[in-house]
Design brief:
Its cofactor is FAD. InterPro entries: Acyl-CoA_Oxase/DH_mid-dom, Acyl-CoA_Oxase/DH_mid-dom_sf, AcylCo_DH-like_C, AcylCo_DH/oxidase_C, AcylCoA_DH/ox_N, AcylCoA_DH/ox_N_sf, AcylCoA_DH/oxidase_NM_dom_sf, Mycobact_Acyl-CoA_DH. Keywords: FAD, Flavoprotein, Oxidoreductase. Pfam families: Acyl-CoA_dh_1, Acyl-CoA_dh_M, Acyl-CoA_dh_N. This protein is an alpha+beta fold. It folds into three domains: 78 residues, Butyryl-Coa Dehydrogenase, subunit A, domain 1, CATH 1.10.540; 107 residues, Beta Barrel (Butyryl-CoA Dehydrogenase, subunit A, domain 2), CATH 2.40.110.10; 142 residues, Butyryl-CoA Dehydrogenase, subunit A, domain 3. It contains twelve helices and eight strands. Helix 1 packs parallel to helix 4. The longest helix is centred in the last third of the chain and has 29 residues. It is globular, with a radius of gyration of 22 Å.
Length: 386
């Protein structure tokens, strides 16, 4: 078992870095942040042109047949630079599910467009009254002839206002146990009765609450069997739960080191000369190392045909909670100046400490809260009872 990249992977990583250095200019970064939308059509099309959109997919489907380590290198660089790829990621996730279990007609309609950046797909799982209990979804889909009528609402449908489709979890058999009566649909956002309203997060990101009022779709938009939505959903959550957020810790560490080496005390000595500064930075570096090893263990398992059922949540919990600890630690270290606004030119590191402390809190919720992840680790990893 090893977690080090080979030479070919590092060459690929360097090419990704060169591309991101070219396109992620300060002006671009500020425009994305001010918009609150982690997506840009031109940036996404640039990934497609470079072969970075779905590099692990077969070449005949628009990929590059790259291995899991090369995909991991790409993901690390995109995350390290905070690139606006969330809608691209959800699109690719749903496309992967359609590739596995979609009908031939669905594959023909969606896959090519999703892989070349012409089709985008947001996720519609969480509901306003259900919190992290996704299986408690109350949004109803009632069969009507050869189609379905959908009524309900979803919370945190990020990019739902610009996506072409929403990958929607709906209740089709309310008389069955909550995990048994769910079905997945791909709902065109152009449908009559669909509406997205903005909700702004602590980190400045726009997400949405989406409403479905007598939305009518044909049965061809169903993904998987009727009442088998929980199994279909599991295909997507497996990828989300195996996410690691270590590269964001690396970004914080970089800015902390920059601050420590360029900030001077009245006697002219740099901040890094203080033992307390070095201690805090060293602690972040150690947690970054652990976070990256946990994530790369998931990659190693995938590459060897094993599913990181509990290992993925371990990576997610540790990396996100480490990011929260580290960002708060650096704010305490830097002092009141650390809370000056993100992208303000006179703020330390242009306000990235302030942004990262806000951003970090959401990471413990995205793709399942820390409590959900710990439950998976306990039940499916350790075999503990419910």
């Amino acid at each position: 078992m090893h977690f080090q990249s080979d030479a070919a992977t590092e060459v690929f990583r360097d090419s990704v870095r060169d591309h991101l250095d070219d396109v992620l200019t300060p002006d671009f970064e500020e425009r994305i942040y001010r918009s609150g939308v982690a997506h840009d059509d031109d940036f996404a099309k640039g990934l497609v042109e470079k072969g970075y959109f779905a590099p692990g997919w077969p070449t005949e489907l628009g990929g590059q047949d790259r291995n899991a380590w090369e995909e991991q290198a790409l993901n690390e660089e995109l995350m390290r630079t905070d690139a606006p790829v969330y809608l691209s990621e959800t699109t690719r996730m749903v496309a992967s599910i359609i590739r596995q279990i979609g009908t031939p007609a669905m594959k023909e309609r969606i896959l090519a467009g999703a892989l070349n950046g012409d089709i985008t797909i947001a996720l519609g799982f969480t509901e306003p009254e259900c919190g992290s209990d996704v299986a408690a979804a109350a949004t109803r889909a009632v069969q009507d002839g050869d189609g379905w009528v959908i009524n309900g609402s979803k919370m945190f449908t990020t990019n739902g206002h610009i996506a072409d489709y929403v990958f929607l979890l709906a209740r089709t058999s309310p008389e069955k146990p909550k995990h048994k009566g769910l079905t997945m649909f791909l709902v065109p956002t152009s449908s009559d009765g669909f509406e997205a309203q903005a909700v702004w997060t602590l980190s400045g990101e726009r997400t949405n609450i989406t409403f479905y009022s007598d939305v009518r779709i044909g049965d061809e938009w169903r993904i998987g069997d009727v009442d088998a939505g929980w199994q279909v959903l599991g295909l997507s959550l497996q990828d989300e739960h195996a996410s690691g957020w270590g590269p964001h810790i690396a970004r914080l560490l970089h800015h902390a080191e920059e601050w420590a080496t360029t900030t001077h005390a009245p006697d002219g000595s740099p901040a890094i000369a203080k033992a307390e500064v070095r201690r805090r930075i060293a602690r972040i570096a150690m947690e970054l190392e652990v976070a990256m090893l946990l994530q790369r263990r998931c990659v190693w398992m995938t590459e060897n045909g094993r599913t990181p059922v509990a290992e993925g949540p371990m990576s997610k919990v540790f990396s996100t909670e480490s990011l929260v600890r580290a960002s708060q630690d650096i704010v305490e270290l830097v002092g009141p100046d650390a809370m000056r606004s993100f992208l303000e030119p006179t703020a330390p590191e242009r306000g990235r400490f302030e942004h990262l402390v806000r951003f970090s809190l959401g990471t413990t919720i995205y793709a399942g809260t820390s409590e959900v992840q710990r439950t998976i680790i306990a039940q499916r990893g350790l075999g503990l009872p419910r």
